[in-house]
Amino acid sequence: MFKLRQLTTITTPKKYLLLFVSFLFSASLFAQDGKALFTANCASCHSVTKKLTGPALAGVESRWPSREKLHDWVHNSSKVIQSGDEYAVNLFNEYNKTQMTAFPQLSAQDIDAILDYIKVEETKAAAATAAPVGETQTAADNGDQTLLYGILTLILAIVAFTLLYINANLKKMADDKEGIPATEPIPFWRNKAYITVFTLVLFLIGGYLITDGAVGLGRQQKYEPHQPIFFSHKVHPGVNQINCQYCHIGVYQGKQATIPTVNICMNCHMAINEYKGEKLFNAEGKEVDGTAEIQKLYKYAGFEPGKPWDPSKAKPIEWVRIHNLPDHVFFSHAQHVNAGRVQCQTCHGEVTSYNEMFQFAPLSMGWCINCHRTTKVQFESNGFYSMYEKYKEDIKNHKMDSVTVKDIGGAECQKCHY
Questions:
Q1: 22-129 is classed CATH 3.90.226.10
Q2: For 409, left (φ over 0), alpha (ψ -120 to 50), or beta?
Q3: Signal sequence span per UniProt (predicted)?
Q4: Euclidean distance between CA atoms 236 and 141, whole angstroms
Q5: To which H or E segment does residue 316 belong?
Q6: CATH 1.10.760.10 intervals, the chain
Q7: pTM for the complete prediction?
Q8: Closest-CA residue to 228 (of 355, 317, 323)
């Protein structure tokens, strides 16, 4: 009896510890799921700590009476506004009566996962703010310490060679004291041990640099070339709220998003021949004359203000392509934007804040596969996925709560490679 009681006393704390660790692990996984959902659905308009198109989401739960009310808002903000909710109406008016996009496809569990992720990020931001300046700087510098590691390696190598030299001299002194005939020291450049070590180090460094260069071959994240005409996305889809599809007409129907023709530009700029907005700056921080850039467009269009325009005189603008994929990679905008309903900002970043367009994402295979593993397919009201009856039945019968792109073949080689 005593042994049994003793065993119970010992194992019970372990059991609770195991449950606690399991809870932390599941919470971590839930937060990661919330991060994927936040990136796919919220990041285009919201940041946790900064005000973007919509308000910062830090402390969002404290501004609403309950999570259920937040669920209603995310599913259909218009309905909540029409109900007369005071906070919802004030928020609607604060953002120039622009309604939040409805997300009926998100389940209550999905929204809770996003809210939990926001809490985690809010805590991290608060900790970073409270940290001393030195600690904050150290954390910021942890991103790339290659130079520091290189200097430390060089110092250690010098110390190692110095110790070897001292050791050789001490051995010579000991031999002299004991009367052992001294041998002529071998010069460094003829010492086989030194030559072998130097060759191995050179081989390892060269191998690392070649491998790193081969892995990044063809990638051009943050590539921001100068264009023939300074075109500000911040002004066009941002300030003037021109829909992306007005210029990129192929994004829903074709493989390419397509670049707008001169005719599309002139639909607006036949009447708009002067820029009167806020100051424009290029990537180097130099101020750009918006009106002069419009005059460049007129030269390509063969247009003179005040005179009838003959479109046949227009010549194409030689835009510099930014986003390039290898020839053996298949990518379709229609597949992602139309069937997959992926937001433009997922791959291109917060385009409405860019004065000059650049490549936001790495567009590597790993980046794409990770997206396919975490992005949930929107089955409801989506005819493209009508063939997947099994998954629909499994979701209906609660055998699974969602389907990712990976589940329908998004990680198979032949889906993306010819």
A1: no
A2: left
A3: 1-31
A4: 36
A5: none
A6: 22-129
A7: 0.54
A8: 317
Structure tokens at 55: 């308000």
> Which residue is associated with the tokens 């099994």?
390
DSSP, res 181: P
- Quote the pLDDT of residue 287: 95
Give the per-residue pLDDT at 237: 92
What lies within 8 Å, CB to CB, of 413 at 6+ separation is: none
Residue 4: the pLDDT is 37
Three-state secondary-structure class, residue 287: strand
Beta strands in 277-325, from DSSP E residues, in sequence order:
280-281, 287-288
Q: Nearest-5° angle of CA 329, CA 333, CA 338?
A: 140
What's the Cα-to-Cα distance from 303 to each of 247, 274, 312, rounded to whole Å? Answer: 20, 14, 11
CA distance 278 to 218: 36
Write out the two tokens for 417.
Answer: 């490679």
Distance CA 57, CA 41 (A): 13
The tokens for 163 are 């110790």
Q: Which two tokens stand for residue 250?
A: 């192929």
Residue corresponding to tokens 């050179």: 202
Cα–Cα distance, 247 to 241 (Å, whole number): 12
